[in-house]
């Protein structure tokens, strides 16, 4: 079993460490220290703990699946955490129920940042990183297995779709992805198009494995169920911020 712990600053999660256990009782004596920005109040933060299953490195396909999580608003612990002068109090111990993840199979998430420059009529997409990618078995994986497990060559392809057909397409460089399943790109892709055309288009993000196997994808458009607000912010010229986009099974 693996668990990670992090403080949530708005929608950002920082994972600091994980531990292993061979039975159903997780015992950990480690301490996790988080630096809180000077402009943030402790009672505005939430502690997140995520539980994963552990796949041995000796197994052919390595994938860490999320089993459950808990969110603890620190405002509920303020009397126990600090005194009236914001000084630390004694250690607090308690039990909390771990909630199950709704998705039985997660295809991971992709972090992107998007802006539209109306004067230049240019869409700028920054592909930042991915996490918890799901790799399907492949007969050719035996050729890529090292002592630490299989290694995959991964890239992101961005398509701008109109009526279901791609009329603009670009892709990132290839990254070697091992059992961590969290490649980093930090690459910028630019698309020249008028705002009216972008408003009626769909931006498609595909996680691809070389040479051209699509492993997961997601869509951002005015009609997308979960990403419509992100698309509206893009069209309005709102300040860009990094967003985690949930990935789905390719169709």
Write the layout of secondary structure elements.
Elements: E1 2-9, E2 12-13, E3 46-52, E4 66-73, H1 78-81, E5 99-100, E6 109-117, E7 122-131, E8 145-146, E9 149-150, E10 152-162, E11 165-171, E12 175-177, E13 184-192, H2 195-199, E14 202-209, E15 213-220, H3 228-236, E16 243-246
Antiparallel strand pairs: 1-2, 1-3, 3-4, 4-5, 6-7, 6-16, 7-13, 8-9, 10-11, 10-12, 10-14, 14-15
Protein name: C2 domain-containing protein
Pfam families: C2
InterPro entries: C2_dom, C2_domain_sf
Molecular structure report:
By secondary structure, this protein is mainly β. 7% of the residues lie in helices and 40% in strands. The longest helix has 9 residues, at 228-236. Residues 6-21 and 56-63 have low confidence and may be disordered. InterPro entries: C2_dom (IPR000008), C2_domain_sf (IPR035892). This is C2 domain-containing protein. Residues 106-245 form the C2 domain.
What is the overall silhouette? globular
Helix and strand sequence? EEEEHEEEEEEEEEHEEHE
Instruction: List the strand order in the largest sheet.
Output: 2-1-3-4-5
Number of helices: 3
Low-pLDDT residue spans:
6-21, 56-63
Terminal CA distance = 32 Å
Features:
251 residues, mainly beta, five-stranded antiparallel sheet, 40% strand, globular, C2 domain-containing protein, C2_dom, C2_domain_sf
Can I get a quick summary?
With 251 residues, the protein is mainly β. It contains three helices and 16 strands. It holds the Pfam family C2.
